[in-house]
Amino acid sequence: MKEKALKLRIEKAVIKDAKTIHAFVNQFARKDEMLPRSLNEIYENIRDFFKCLDDGKIVGVAALHILWEDLAEIRSVAVSTAYQGKGIGKKLVKKCIVEAQALGLEKVFALTYQPGFFRELGFHDVDKNALPQKIWGECLKCHKFPECNELAVIKEL
């Protein structure tokens, strides 16, 4: 049987997408593959998110969260299991990078359990201590701090 051709489109998320984004992210968080996000956090940061649609259905999400004048985090990269391995995650991260460049940011980073994925996109490993805005601004509030085993990767733009 021939596989259906994908009709992928990436665009900014809107308020009505918040519950779907929340479900996507927390599906992977339950498997300890990313950190959970509350629905309130998704609503507050909805403008950070991009969604990938296949024929109108959300199949992946990613967010670009600005932390400082020169620094943003790419986070909550999640792709539906049925759509993994099709380059959707990479397309979403690249869209975040394009937006970061348009905003005049100098660097983007990610805290991840999948550093190889980001390395393929030109990121390199960095010590978390090189990201004090993240550590002292957000990580302190995390239930995994200070025993977090996410790795930090960064890309200069």
Task: Give a quick summary of the entry.
This protein has helices at residues 18-30, 39-44, 88-102, 115-119, 132-137, and strands at residues 8-12, 49-54, 57-68, 71-79, 107-112, 124-126, 151-156. The chain has 157 residues and is of the alpha+beta class.
Give an account of the 3D structure.
By secondary structure, this protein is an alpha+beta fold. The chain has one domain (8-156): 3-Layer(aba) Sandwich (Aminopeptidase), CATH 3.40.630. The chain is 29% helix and 30% strand. It has 5 helices and 7 strands. It has helices at 18-30, 39-44, 88-102, 115-119, 132-137; strands at residues 8-12, 49-54, 57-68, 71-79, 107-112, 124-126, 151-156. A 7-stranded mixed beta sheet has the order 1-2-3-4-5-7-6. Strand 3 (57-68) and strand 4 (71-79) form a beta hairpin. The mean pLDDT is 88.
Topology (SSEs and partners):
Elements: E1 8-12, H1 18-30, H2 39-44, E2 49-54, E3 57-68, E4 71-79, H3 88-102, E5 107-112, H4 115-119, E6 124-126, H5 132-137, E7 151-156
Parallel strand pairs: 4-5
Antiparallel strand pairs: 1-2, 2-3, 3-4, 5-7, 6-7
